[in-house]
Design brief:
CATH architecture: Orthogonal Bundle
Mean pLDDT: 83
Number of helices: 6
Largest sheet: 2 strands, antiparallel
Number of strands: 2
Oligomer: single chain
Shape: globular
Distance between the termini: 45 Å
Length: 122
């Protein structure tokens, strides 16, 4: 049986084992919307600088619909973590800097803990 301590975001069991912790961003929060829009502009700039259409990129990353690219570029979604390497390859960038930059948009709390509050270089 799992329970959550008052004021805590993590779950514990009576034996003391912890369950998986998640801290999902709420898209209706203004700062989250701005971060997603910033991520979308960054992704769009990378795509356009490589002269890729949304369709080209969708095919390269294995997206079923090119409209998924449009949604991301407009700040209405995020790249699934299991697809980061595909995206980096499609955009012809090293994976680690690509993921680090995405983390600054998608998970700024963890990013700041790991790398400080500065912004990653492009």
């Amino acid at each position: 049986m799992l329970f959550r301590l008052r004021g805590s975001r993590s779950w514990s069991s009576r034996s003391g084992a912890s369950a998986v912790y998640t801290n999902p961003q709420k898209l209706n929060e203004p700062h989250v919307q701005k971060l997603r829009q910033d991520a979308g502009r960054w992704l769009k700039g990378m795509r356009e600088s490589r002269q890729l259409t949304q369709r080209d990129l969708a095919v390269s990353v294995g997206a079923e619909y090119y409209t998924f690219i449009s949604q991301l570029e407009n700040g209405r979604g995020r790249i699934p973590p299991d697809r980061y390497a595909d995206w980096a390859k499609a955009l012809d960038v090293p994976v680690r800097p690509f993921v680090k930059k995405l983390m600054s948009f998608y998970d700024p709390v963890t990013y700041n803990l790991l790398f400080g509050s500065g912004t990653p270089e492009d």
